Amino acid sequence: MNLSEINWDINAAGSWPLPIKMITAFIICAVVAGASYYFITIDQLAQLEQLEEEEGRLKKLFEKKQKKAVNLEAYRAQLNQIESSLGEMLKQMPTQEELASLLVDISQTGLASGLEFKLFKPGGAARREFYSELPISINVVGKYEELGLFVSGLASLPRIVTVHNINIKPGNKKLMTMTATVKTYNEGVEQPAPSKKKRRKKRR
């Protein structure tokens, strides 16, 4: 087959030899397929990838919510238990009227343990989220076992009392000095009622 003898005019394509027709048809099909892939399929593949990612995200979200739904009763039971525990803790917090007697109980616990108080200074109430924190700075002197009895006695009081910032230093005659902050808690700080001034009647 002599290529120079072929009329390459596109209008005369019907007279081209069969191999040339097949090669031309293959080239045209390849060009059309490449253009279709570039202008259509690439965008569709990108959309498909986005949809697959969205599907994966939605599946994870569904599984997460399904687990919560399955454990809903357990969560409710846990919430009830927390509310019950919170209620018991609030009952163990001293009221404003009980604070004075609680301070006496704390000092009496120290004295009963054999300690000597060098400092017993209640501080101002610090407001927290749903309660007030009432700190008491203390400085006591005694034997090591007496300090242990004191801390144990505070834990056994009917109201919540905690000990913080403990610092123990050795002293003379097997005595030790302990500085600490004892804290008790109140459900809320009650504001004192405003005093009403009585008007004096003028005598005529």
Features:
rod-shaped, Alpha-Beta Plaits, 20% strand, 204 residues, 49% helix, 5-stranded antiparallel β-sheet, disordered C terminus
Q: Describe it for me?
A:
The chain is α+β, with helices and mostly antiparallel strands and 204 residues long. The protein is 49% helix and 20% strand. It has four helices and five strands, in the order αααβββαββ. Strands 1, 2, 3, 4 and 5 form a five-stranded antiparallel sheet that branches. A hairpin with a 5-residue loop joins β4 (161-170) and β5. The chain is rod-shaped. The termini are far apart.
H and E string: HHHEEEHEE
- The total count of helices amounts to 4
Number of strands: 5
SS-derived structural category: alpha+beta
Described by the principal axes of the CA atoms, the overall outline is rod-shaped
Q: Architecture of the largest domain, according to CATH?
A: 2-Layer Sandwich
Nearest-angstrom radius of gyration?
43 Å
The low-confidence runs, each spanning 5 or more residues with pLDDT under 50, are: 189-204
Remind me, CATH topology of the largest domain?
Alpha-Beta Plaits
Distance between the termini: 145 Å
Q: How much of the residues is beta strand, in percent?
A: 15-25%
Helix content: 40-55%
Please sum up the structure shown:
The chain is of the alpha+beta class.
Give the SSE map.
Elements: H1 18-70, H2 72-91, H3 99-112, E1 116-122, E2 126-127, E3 132-142, H4 144-155, E4 161-170, E5 176-186
Antiparallel strand pairs: 1-3, 2-3, 3-5, 4-5
Helix pairs in contact: 3-4
